[in-house]
User: Fold this.
Amino acid sequence: MAVDTTILDQLIVGRVKPHIYAFATNTVPNHLKVGDTYRPVATRLREWREHFPDLTKECDEAATVSQDVYFRDFAVHRFLDVERGKARLSRDELADGVYFSKEFFRETAPADVQDAIADIRESYKGASDSYDYYDANRLPIEYHYARGPEWTLRPNQQEAVDRFAEAVRKGRTNLLMYAVMRFGKSFTSLCCAKTMGARTVLIVSAKADVKVEWKRTVETAGNFEGYVFLDSDQLDEDPNAIKAALDAGQTAAVFLTLQDLQGPHVKDKHAELFGSDLDLLIVDETHFGARAEEYGRILKDAGQPTDDSKALAKVEDDLVDTAEADEQLKVLTPRVRLHLSGTPYRILMSSEFSTDDIIAFVQFSDIVRDQEAWDAANLAQDEPADEWENPYFGFPQMVRFAFNPSRAARQKMEELA
Assistant:
């Protein structure tokens, strides 16, 4: 029986392949810089050009000895040090202000690097212990979704995008999208980003598990052709990933958690983000941070077993210091902030958002009403439309429960109004 792999085929999967690279620069004449990278060599060299604008690539070779085994640049360095006697650059040889790296080797040619790689591979075949080798199965695996056709905005989503555009035109910069679950807040908010021509979009959430949905939306919907999805891990690997995306003419959609942002200082991997002109900051489930803080307090007071490191790690992952995260967010200077929430009741009771700031106010009852109105207009015709053509087809039926408060309860609510 054949296995249906339709869903899996929608994923583009690739194991990261490390490379050895080398470049020369007139800033450090008669030397060759030798390093390795898990990303495209061109990306790594683009970063190095910030320090050495005139560099020229001299070597680009896969750092593998087999499909399942790879080596690091340390092995190449060892060959150059021991077998070829190449001296390394010292800091006192450089003029003030020149970036220093100990991976520059004096009087070294690309052929020396090629010889090193050949020796490393031969040593592996001969089971020599001259070099260290690594299991390629432990390398990071990147998952990307295949880009599909454009998604069509439902009428209530299109209205939200239109109201967003109008609010931005009026100079409103702190906006709220209140919409219940399954409205499609991630897709709609990214359409808002597109309508304002955003190049840098930061999405923050207190819920790490929503990252998958954001990634799927950015990479799958044809609406966002030219968008690249980045997260904390990718910024760790390449602190210049945002600049690389922008230089390539792409829009950077960066997802970070409040847990990742919290801390008294801006982390190195966030430096490029905080130092850039951010177009749109999307705060997903903006109400959740405060709740997470309460949940974290409860967990800390619940007597977690101190000998269970996994349990403690889970507790720490759930903690959000909203004060620290909020301080980090305040450092950002986006053109527009867009808050998303399905239960913004405390927010709406405050004066943070005026009527002009609320670009969507969609409850389940609104969706059900629109769903029924479409059915009434299209299913009662002489040639009725198909039910599944309803833009709101598939939304669950809503069942409401209510109760009548007692007289004493109503009197108490009046007193507390």
Q: What stands out?
A: Residues 274 and 332 are 6 Å apart (CA to CA). The first strand starts at residue 11 and ends at 15.
